[in-house]
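Example 3.2
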Amino acid sequence: MTTKQPDWEAIERAYRAGALSIRTIAERNGISDTAIRKRAKASGWARDLSEQVRKEVRNKLVRGEVRDEQCANPEHDAEIIEEAAEEGARVVRSHRRDIRKATNLANLLMDDLLTTISKREEIEDSIEAETADDSNGMRRATMLSAVALPSNAKTLFQLSSAMKNLQVLERTAFGLDDKEQPNDSDDLSKLMDELSKDA
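Structure, written as tokens:
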């Protein structure tokens, strides 16, 4: 049986782009991260394109166009940047969609809570009527506690926290609070790994 040889050209591109951790590159290519590190050291690969990848991800999200960067090997590096930027842009777009869905859901839940609070007396009367023939008051107590003020206050707090978190995520996903990005390519690799797991 012939063992399939790793695609070292693709591995080099992913390694130099710096968008994925070495461990993730290894898993995707069915080899060990140690083998990649040895090959990178022997071939003189450098993970030096991560900042350019970050710029291109932002560029793709805003304009959908790729700007060529001045590099040691412009054509080869431009291809690596393009490939990594496309993957990063895809992940961010996916997260934007997920954040929108979660925000819509939180808004619907907030509307339901408002309806429950505004019609609490009617709901309590319906519960009393529904449980009038019960042999004990357990079901009635459980149903009434679900629409009681402490329960509504707890739900409001949880929804407010969720909406606050979603607003932070949305502002980040749309680059509205653009802070200076770290220069360390390992930080970007960790971020991209996390995004890839969620996507």
